[in-house]
Amino acid sequence: MIDELRAYAAKKLNEVLPILNEARDQRSTANALRLLWEIQRACSDYHLAEMVAASLVSFGRIAPYNNDPVREAVDRLKGAGVLRPVVARSPVCVVTEEFQGPLQELRMLVDNRFKDDSA
Questions:
Q1: Of the candidates 103, 104, 109, which has an alpha carbon nearest to the alpha carbon of residue 15?
Q2: Rounded to an integer, what distance in angstroms lies between the CA atom of residue 32 and that of residue 22?
Q3: Which tens digits make up the pLDDT trace of 79-97?
Q4: CA distances (Å), 84 to each of 9, 45, 56, 87, in order?
């Protein structure tokens, strides 16, 4: 059973890694792995990073308000050039142009995962 799980995991990783490492936008060297790394680096814990990544993948934006625990992470991501406000002084943030391609890669991976799991 362990060997079957190991083979399954290796197969899935081999499918995903080329997509994550590929930089689709020639104007940018960013890729999906770098986007996830920047998110993890900006967040104080794994659960917060997962929430930020899920919000960006699902909705294309994140909007912390007042004492929201996400605010510090969003501020760090803005400082790192990963996020920008939709309009000046707005709490709603989207990824910068550099990270639009990597965000799209993550969305494709999530879509493919759900297609594979339903088959």
A1: 109
A2: 8
A3: 999 999 999 989 999 999 9
A4: 35, 22, 12, 8
